[in-house]
Design brief:
Layout: E1 2-6, H1 27-39, E2 44-47, E3 55-56, E4 59-60, H2 71-78, E5 86-92, H3 98-112, E6 116-121, H4 126-129, H5 143-158, E7 166-170, E8 175-179, E9 191-194, H6 199-208, E10 211-214, H7 219-232, E11 244-249, E12 251-253, H8 257-271, H9 274-285, E13 310-311, H10 319-333, H11 337-345, E14 350-352, H12 354-366, E15 372-375, H13 385-397, H14 410-414
Parallel strand pairs: 1-2, 1-15, 2-5, 5-6, 6-9, 9-10, 10-11, 11-15, 12-14
Antiparallel strand pairs: 3-4, 3-13, 7-8
C-alpha cells in the first residue's frame, strides 16, 4: 500500500473553527505536517495550486481569503527539513512553458536528492487566464493536448545529453530547441501525477502519468476506474505496475467504531457552515442563493446550465441529475439544504477504530480499487496524527505497509523504475 499526505489549505474539508486548527500559510504548518508524514513513512507530501481567488457573485469565496502560497517554493524549503519524503507540487501546464517546468522540477529533484513530483493540471477558462499574458486563449479541447506535449517536452530536456544539454522538441503547441542547464537528475525524471477523470484525462494518464489522483469513494466505483485505466496502459506500451492509482481520502479514527462515527458527524457539521452550504448550492444551481436560508428547503428552481455566478470552481458535470438526487435524498430524510450538503458533500472515506480503518483501506487495495491513498486531513497541521500513530502500525503488523524506507528517491518509494532514456553518466 502507498500513502501520501495532502496539505488541506483552502479546501472544503478544512475546519477553520477547531481550536486545533492553525495557520494555512506559515511555514511551520507545512513543516509539521510533512514531518508527521515522514514519520509515518509516507511516499510523498502533496500540495495543490490556486491560480486565482474563487468568486461567488463577484465576491471572494470565503475559504480563499487566506490565500495559497506557490507550491514549488514551499516544497523547496521542505526539502531542507525532510530526508526521504517525496515532494509533489501542482503546477498548471496551460500557463507555463516546458523549459521553465523542466528546470524548476529538475532543480527540486536535485535539491531533494530525487524526491520531486509534478502534479500536472490544466485550465481552459478565461476567468483564470485573465491573470496571465495570454488570457483564456486555450480551447477546452486542447488542454490535454498541450499538457501531454508539455510533459513530453520536459522529459526531452531531462533526457538531453549531460555533456552538452542539447535538446529539440516539436509539436502542435511547442517548437523549442537549445541547451538544458541542469546535470543528471537523481531519479532521471521527476514523478508525474495526474488527476483527470474524463475519457481524455484517462488517456492522458495512461500515456504520461506515474500516479493518478482520483476521488472514487465506493469499492465498485474504484474497481471500475482501476480496471478501465489499467486496461489502457498496454496500448501505450506500459505495464500495470507502471501507474499507481491513489484516491484522495479522509479518515476519522476513534477508540471504537461508534466513537469514530460520532466524531465524523461532528467534523462534517464543522466543515459546512450555512455560508458554505449556500456557496456549494450556488455552484450546483448556478443562481444567486445569498438571500436563502441554509436551514430551510432546497431551492425550487431548476439549475442554470450556462452560469457565471461562481467563478474559478468546476461545476458538477450533471447539475440537473445531481439536483434530482439531492431533492430525493432531502425528501426521504427530511433534510434542510445545509443537512443535504453535509450528507452529499462531506462523507469521510474511512471511519472507525484503527483496526476497522486498516481493514477497509486494505480491502480497497486487495480488491484492486486502489494502489494506495492520498490522505486529505481536516486539520492543519495535526490532521494526520491519528492515522500515523494508530492506523499505520496496524497496517505494518498486517504486512501491507512498509516498516522503513528502503530507497531514497520517490520512484523507489513507489516501485517505479528509472525512466528509459534518462541521462546516466553523461549518456543521452
Amino acid at each position: 500500500m502507498h500513502l501520501a499526505a495532502h496539505f488541506p489549505g483552502v479546501n472544503n474539508t478544512t475546519v477553520w473553527s477547531d481550536p486545533e486548527s492553525r495557520s494555512q500559510i506559515e511555514f511551520r504548518s507545512f513543516a509539521e505536517l510533512a514531518a508527521t508524514a515522514e514519520r509515518g513513512l509516507f511516499d510523498f507530501f502533496f500540495l495543490a495550486e490556486g491560480l486565482r481567488l474563487r468568486e461567488v457573485n463577484g465576491r471572494i469565496h470565503d475559504l480563499d481569503v487566506v490565500g495559497r502560497p506557490e507550491s514549488l517554493t514551499v516544497l523547496s524549503a521542505l526539502a531542507g527539513v525532510t530526508e526521504r519524503l517525496g515532494l509533489a507540487a501542482t503546477v498548471n501546464a496551460t500557463f507555463n512553458e516546458p523549459y521553465e517546468l523542466a528546470k524548476r522540477f529538475g532543480t527540486l529533484d536535485l535539491l531533494s536528492g530525487g524526491r520531486a513530483a509534478w502534479n500536472v493540471v490544466t485550465s481552459s477558462d478565461a476567468f483564470t487566464g485573465e491573470n496571465f499574458r495570454r488570457g483564456g486563449y486555450l480551447d477546452h479541447a486542447d488542454r490535454y493536448t498541450r499538457a501531454a506535449e508539455a510533459v513530453r517536452a520536459a522529459r526531452a530536456l531531462w533526457d538531453s545529453p549531460a555533456d552538452d544539454g542539447q535538446f529539440r522538441f516539436t509539436g502542435k503547441h511547442f517548437d523549442i530547441s537549445g541547451r538544458f542547464t541542469l546535470p543528471e537528475l537523481p531519479q532521471g525524471h521527476p514523478v508525474v501525477i495526474q488527476a483527470g477523470d474524463s475519457a481524455q484525462g484517462r488517456d492522458f494518464a495512461a500515456a504520461e502519468a506515474d500516479v493518478v489522483f482520483t476521488r472514487h469513494g465506493s469499492l465498485a466505483a474504484g474497481q471500475e476506474f482501476y480496471r478501465d485505466l489499467k486496461s489502457r496502459l498496454p496500448g501505450h506500451g506500459r505495464s500495470a505496475e507502471s501507474l499507481k492509482i491513489m484516491p484522495g481520502v479522509s479518515v476519522v479514527v476513534g477508540d471504537t467504531d461508534a466513537e469514530a462515527e460520532e466524531k465524523a458527524a461532528h467534523i462534517r457539521r464543522q466543515q459546512v457552515s450555512g455560508a458554505t452550504a449556500l456557496g456549494l448550492a450556488q455552484l450546483l444551481w448556478g443562481i444567486d442563493l445569498s438571500d436563502r436560508d441554509p436551514d430551510g428547503p432546497l431551492p425550487a428552481e431548476d439549475p442554470v446550465l450556462d452560469s457565471a455566478v461562481v467563478q474559478g470552481r468546476v461545476r458538477p458535470t450533471d447539475p440537473v441529475g445531481t439536483v434530482a438526487r439531492w431533492r430525493a435524498a432531502a425528501a426521504e430524510n427530511g433534510w434542510t439544504l445545509r443537512e443535504t450538503v453535509i450528507a452529499q458533500q462531506n462523507r469521510q472515506s474511512f471511519i472507525g477504530s484503527p483496526e476497522t480503518v486498516a481493514t477497509a483501506m486494505d480491502e480497497f487495495v486487495q480488491q484492486r480499487a486502489a494502489d494506495g491513498y492520498i490522505l486529505v486531513p481536516h486539520l492543519t497541521p495535526g490532521g494526520l496524527d491519528d492515522v500515523v500513530e494508530r492506523v499505520v502500525p496496524v497496517l505494518q503488523e498486517r504486512g501491507v505497509f512498509r516498516t522503513e524506507y528502503v530507497g531514497s528517491t520517490l520512484r523507489e518509494h513507489l516501485g517505479l523504475p528509472r525512466p528509459k532514456g534518462a541521462r546516466s553518466s553523461g549518456a543521452a
